[in-house]
Amino acid sequence: MTANPTRRQFIKASGATAATVSLSQIAWSESKNDQITLAILGLNGRGRYLAAQFSPLDGVEIAAIADPDSRLLNERAMEIEVLSGKKPDTVQDFRTLLDRKDIDAVVVATPDHWHALATIWACEASKDVYVEKPASHNLLEGKMMIEAAKRNNRVVQVGTQRRSAPFLAEAKEYIESGKLGDIGMARVWYMSNRPSIGKKNDSPTPEGVDYDLWLGPAPKSPFNENRFHYEWHWNWDYGTGELGNNGIHGLDMVRALLDIDLPNRVTSGGGLRMYDDDRIAPDIQISTWEYPNLSVVWEHRQRGGGTLYGKSFGVALYGSEEILVSGGSDWEVHRGKDVETHKGNNGMGEHVLNFLDCVRTRKTPNASIEQGHLSTSLCHTGNIAYRLRANLEFDPEKQQFIGNDDANALLGRDYRSPYKPPEGLV
Predict the structure, then answer these.
(1) Residues 219, 417 contacting (CB under 8 angstroms)
(2) What is the average pLDDT score of the chain?
(3) Same domain, residue pair 309 and 253
(4) Taking a C-beta distance cutoff of 8 angstroms, is the pair 28, 59 a contact?
(5) Residues 6+ apart with CB under 8 A from 195
(6) H-type alpha helices, 241-290
(7) CB 202 within 8 A of CB 223
(8) Fewest Cβ atoms nearer than 10 Å: which of 87, 130, 282, 347?
(9) Residue 210: is its pLDDT beyond 70?
(10) Strand 265-271 versus strand 392-395 pairing type
(11) How far apart are CA 18 and CA 247, in angstroms?
């Protein structure tokens, strides 16, 4: 990217589309006099993408951006200026922004291990929150996030954007018509071809990176590129593996389509079978959640690609009469060899607008923290079953495992001082 990017260059680099940005701007123009001022926390990858979603909207100002890696700040600020006409303030430590009275809401696009603390602290500072998926790094954090949002009367939207996609509502209406018949199984998959991350030695922290802040609540450890930008996904101290990275989207779709909450039993297998590198989270994983009359199955591979029903990512609901399949932006009905296809989009533009509308109206967002927590909890329980290689019984009401102290110990984490949640939460 050039030092002074054009609007088109930024949209392309961020992964957004000009059509999405334009559509969102048109949809929002009716309320442009009701200004909402945002801060974006976390600027690499997803944070950059969300900046491209929010920046051009009428009635929205990105007043500040924050990231422990100061090398990102100036370029991201210029990119936002290209889209919005105003350059935001830049800081390394987002905590300095929480006392600003002009900031109405924050967008949390940090690594997973920061999602909960950033959300909780923002709620305690009377800010609304758009937090990326997965909602939390562990199950107990999700419960704390719900409590923080409730006691501070905050709007918290989780970045499972298909909750706002029209295609999902259409598919749900079709399911409720009964045409699929009895649904006994749901399947979610993500087949990718990620390159090896290799093996890297610990190294000095790059100049401009506040690594202690980046680590936050995670254990103290030396800097390593394979535990930093993006590769943190594959380390349990910071990430939630592919299940929390992409599985969350499909599992949330299943929950939304079938109106289910948490299971009674979970199992998971797989391993590090594709590469000999620094990953800790599995590159192949199969997880199963058992409900009274339903089995939900997740499968991922990180090498070799492949598809199911012609889709590298997707959801399939197996009914006694028909099969409903979605690739995350459409839905299909399979009747033997016949396939009926309904096109759509992934709901990103609608999801952003839904959040902003709820900030203004105080309505419950489409992907509330309550719903985001339940979907994310499927990821957490699946990963715990994988890590313990155990067949685990689960109490969906108490949200804890039955008769397994080792599994329950992994429902939370130890927090490194001073990066701890406030007292009095769950």
Answers:
(1) no
(2) 94
(3) yes
(4) yes
(5) none
(6) 241-242, 248-258
(7) yes
(8) 87
(9) yes
(10) antiparallel
(11) 27
422 domain residue, yes or no: no
76 and 192 assigned to the same domain? no
DSSP H or E run through 407: helix 405-409
Residue 274 forms part of a structural domain: yes
Residues 132 and 245 both lie in one domain: no
* Residue pair 48/14 in contact by the 8 Å Cβ criterion: yes
Let me know whether 178 and 36 are in one domain. no
Distance of CA 296 to the CA centre of its chain: 20
Whether omega for the bond prior to residue 418 falls within 30 degrees of 0, making it cis, is: yes
Give just the sign of the alpha carbon dihedral 112, 113, 117, 120.
positive
- Identify whether residues 259 and 140 lie together within a single domain: no
Q: Are 380 and 240 in contact (CB under 8 A)?
A: yes
Q: What is the CATH number of the domain that holds 312?
A: 3.30.360.10
Number of domains in the chain: 2
Domain CATH number, residue 153:
3.40.50.720
Q: What is the pLDDT of residues 20-66, one digit of tens each?
A: 444 444 344 344 458 999 999 999 999 999 999 999 999 999 999 99
Dihedral sign computed on CA atoms, order 141, 265, 374, 297: positive
Rounded (10°) angle between helices 18-28 and 46-54: 40
Closest of 315, 238, 233 to residue 282, by C-alpha: 233
Place of tokens 């009401």: 397
Where residue 112 falls (left for φ over 0; alpha for ψ -120 to 50; beta otherwise) is alpha
> CA-based angle 255:259:264, to the nearest 5?
70
Instruction: Tell me, yes or no, whether 382 lies in a domain.
Output: yes
Reply yes or no on whether the pLDDT at 7 is more than 90: no
pTM value? 0.93
52 and 30 both lie in a single domain = yes
Among all chains, which residue has been given the structure tokens 């067949």?
Answer: 391
Residue 426: inside a domain: no
Q: Are 183 and 318 in contact (CB under 8 A)?
A: yes
The residue type found at 387 is: R
User: Cα separation of 403 and 362, whole Å?
Assistant: 41
Give the range of the structural domain holding residue 14, as residue numbers without chain letter.
7-162+350-368
Between CA 255 and CA 252 the distance in angstroms is 5
Residues 118 and 14 in one domain: yes
Q: What is the DSSP string of 92-123?
A: S-GGGGTT-TT--EEEE-S-HHHHHHHHHHHH
338, β-bridge pairs? 335
